[in-house]
Structures are given as C-alpha cells and as structure tokens.
C-alpha cells in the first residue's frame, strides 16, 4: 500500500492516499520500499479499489452487521454453585438475561435446596453460580407460588363459568405452595440474571 501511495501522492482525491497521509499522518517519502516489492504491480491494487475490496474490506452498506458466534464449544468451561458471593438485584422486575424452563425438582436433585432469595415476596429461592471466568450468574423463580399471590381459595372458585370464559392468561389459577413448587416435576419458568 505504501508503494501505491508513493506513486499516487499527488492525487489528493484518492481516499486511500488521503487516509494514509492526512488521517493516519504517515509520510510515504520516509519509507523505503524493500527490493522484493519494488517490482510489485500496483494495477492489482487499483482493480481491488475499483471493486471495493481494497485491503480485504467489502463495500460498505447500510445493512446492520450481525456477528455470529462461531465457536459454541463448552470445552474448558466449568461452573459451580457459589455461596460466598451473590448477584445484586434490585427486585424481581430487573432485567433478566434469559428465561429458562426447568423442572424445580431437577434443580433440587442436582444442586440441593435453593438459597433464600433477595427479591422478597416475588420469589422463594435462588441458585448463585460462578463459572471458570469468575463471572457470577443467578437462577431464581419469579412469582410462581402462593407466597406472592396469597393463599388459594376453594377449588370451586377456579371452576366457575365466569373464570372459565376468560382467556388462559387472565384466568385465576391455583398456585402451588413453596413445598409443592420445589417438588414439582413439571417445567416451570426461571429467570437467569448475570453480572455485566
């Protein structure tokens, strides 16, 4: 590229000459071209410049670049339950990185009973984990039990015509107790929060 700039130093409109000399502040007259590059033809560079692939770049566009993670391997990644550090959360409404569907009984079998939660009445337990990068993340239930919604009513209340006419997401539902929730084998929603 230095040879190309040296040959076209008078062309102030050329964007590559302008970038090399003005933006980067480099002086091509102070650079000596090695012997093996003196015979290099700069016509190839002008063709690349015309096609927009000069210096390996594609022509710019207004499209947003979405970077994909190429390596999804978990080799060398390890995590464990952490009891001495906790993730600070303002409340259960704080931003969660992900929502996971997990059976609570599976979590209890794998990691033991959950620690007391810091989100007061919004949850009943949380698991703090630390990984091999010493990053901290927390898995907790959010408004899943009668601890938040209050004591359940009689079963007849939930089977009234008025309640059954409502859409599923607006129906009054019987909520499990804390013990029933953590012994449940059905998939339940858990929030995952992590430090920045």
Give an overview in words.
The protein is of the alpha+beta class. It folds into two domains: 2-56, no CATH class; 79-194, no CATH class. 26% of the residues lie in helices and 14% in strands. The chain has helices at residues 2-7, 15-23, 43-51, 104-111, 146-149, 155-158, 161-165, 178-182; strands spanning 79-81, 98-102, 126-131, 136-141, 188-194. A five-stranded antiparallel beta sheet has the order 1-3-4-5-2. The relative contact order is 0.14. The mean pLDDT is 80.
Layout of SSEs?
Blueprint: H1 2-7, H2 15-23, H3 43-51, E1 79-81, E2 98-102, H4 104-111, E3 126-131, E4 136-141, H5 146-149, H6 155-158, H7 161-165, H8 178-182, E5 188-194
Antiparallel strand pairs: 1-3, 2-5, 3-4, 4-5
Characteristics of this structure?
196 residues, 8 helices, 5 strands, alpha+beta, 14% strand, five-stranded antiparallel beta sheet, single chain, 2 domains
When the domains are counted, the total is: 2
Oligomeric state of the chains present here: single chain
Mean pLDDT: 80
Unreliable parts:
none
Biggest β-sheet strands, sense, barrel: 5 strands, antiparallel
The helicity comes to 25-40%
Please report the distance between the alpha carbons of the first and last residues: 41 Å
Order of helices and strands: HHHEEHEEHHHHE
Query: How many helix segments?
Result: 8
Structural class: alpha+beta
Brief description of this entry?
The protein has 196 residues and is an alpha+beta fold. Helix content is 26%, strand content 14%. Strands 1-3-4-5-2 form a five-stranded antiparallel beta sheet.
